Amino acid sequence: MDNNKKLLEEREQEIKMHRLIIPLSTLFSFILGYYLLHNPIKFHFLDEKTIYILIELSISFILIIYSIIPPKSKFKFDHITGIILCMAFSLSICMLLFTKTYFYQLYLFLITQAIFHYSEYISVITYHFDTIEFKSYLINHSTEWIICLITSYCETVLGNIFFYDYKHNIFIFTTGIIITIIGQIFRIGALFTGKKNFTHLLSYKKKPEQFLMTTGFYGISRHPSYFGFWIWGLGTQLMCGNLICSIGFPIGLWIFFQDRIIEEEGLLIEFFGEAYLDYKKKVPILIPFVYMDKKEEQEHLDEYYTNHPKEIPNEIYKKKVE
Q1: Which of 37, 110, 210, 262 has its CB 3.0 to 4.6 Å from that of 92, i.e. a possible disulfide?
Q2: pLDDT of residue 119
Q3: What tens digit of pLDDT does each residue of 89-136 get?
Q4: Cα 307 from chain centroid (whole Å)
Q5: What gap in Å lies between CA 29 and CA 90, rounded to an integer?
Q6: What is the rounded distance in angstroms from the CA atom of residue 106 to the CA atom of residue 88?
């Protein structure tokens, strides 16, 4: 009981800390950005466009470094990461509102990325505080993601420098924004409707409070968080006008999600048996070409009946299990 009470107290303190971090760092960065943009430091050897490029590249570089070399400390660096994400968010808004929008696509990508990663961390604080760590931001969740992230920044920046006229198609840009918003809605909706049912790490043992979610976002996709992440990635690259990454991002994320979804589907069959199979027939995943073959599905169902012999539907199957 003492440990639970201590954990709850730590959770409340962490939530209060982030309630301060979000508004204060965002407001400070916005005011600082506004001031510097209206009272610029003069560099005779740099033109205005180059200065804007350097500012955004600096923010992008910090996020990339964080994704490759995660800090080891549990809380202090988590707070610093929160501040950096808020700074990326507010400075990018400043650049959009108060400058010539040479790199508006990159600013929008940084804004969507800040919202995405911070919402992941907040969901862990809210529902899984005992598992909180730097990786809860999902900035460095897989090798595929890190490759996608670095490639995206490179294509966005280099494309705007050398192929500016070819990267700004209003139809593709608008489509990308719409897909990004839909993906973010699905992702956040899954996080906060799934509550303790949703975890960043797979659960190999069914928890007493765990139940099968079939309504809301889970009534549209069996894995709305993965689907949301997948189309969010596609949408951001269309929004940025990135031809290579518009193909590479969905493929990279698909490679990661394919193995994870199949493994998770197997565990869910072992947890819920026929109930999950019925749900599986009614609701799609929505990420294409991700499926489990019937033989593997049956093996997981056999495991479920081995652990739940009273639920075996007929005597023939009962003999087979015994």
Answers
A1: 110
A2: 85
A3: 877 787 777 766 667 888 888 889 888 988 888 887 777 776 667 777
A4: 34
A5: 6
A6: 11
What is the spatial distance between Cα 164 and Cα 269, in angstroms, rounded to a whole number?
Answer: 50
Query: How far from each other are the two terminal CA atoms of the chain, in whole angstroms?
Result: 41
pTM over 0.90: no
In order of 53, 61, 121, 135, 155, the CA distances from 9 in angstroms are 43, 35, 18, 22, 45
Q: For residue range 25-82, what is the model confidence (pLDDT) as tens digits?
A: 666 666 666 566 556 555 444 555 555 555 555 555 555 555 555 544 444 566 677 7
CATH code that applies to domain 163-322: 1.20.120.1630
- C-alpha torsion sign, points 105, 107, 111, 116: positive
- Per the document, the length of the chain is 322
Greatest CA span in the chain, whole angstroms?
Answer: 86
Task: Evaluate the CA torsion angle 17, 22, 24, 28 in order and state its sign.
Answer: positive
Domain with CATH 1.20.120.1630 in the chain: 163-322
In angstroms, the CA 13 to CA 24 distance is 17
What lies within 8 Å, CB to CB, of 35 at 6+ separation is: none
Q: What pLDDT, on a 0 to 100 scale, did the predictor assign at position 318?
A: 45
Contacts for 254-259 with beta carbons within 8 Å, 24 or more apart? 254/230, 254/287, 254/289, 254/290, 255/144, 256/142, 256/144, 256/145, 257/223, 257/226, 257/229, 257/230, 257/287, 257/290, 258/289, 258/290
CB atoms < 10 A from the CB of 263, how many? 13
309/321 Cα distance (integer angstroms): 8
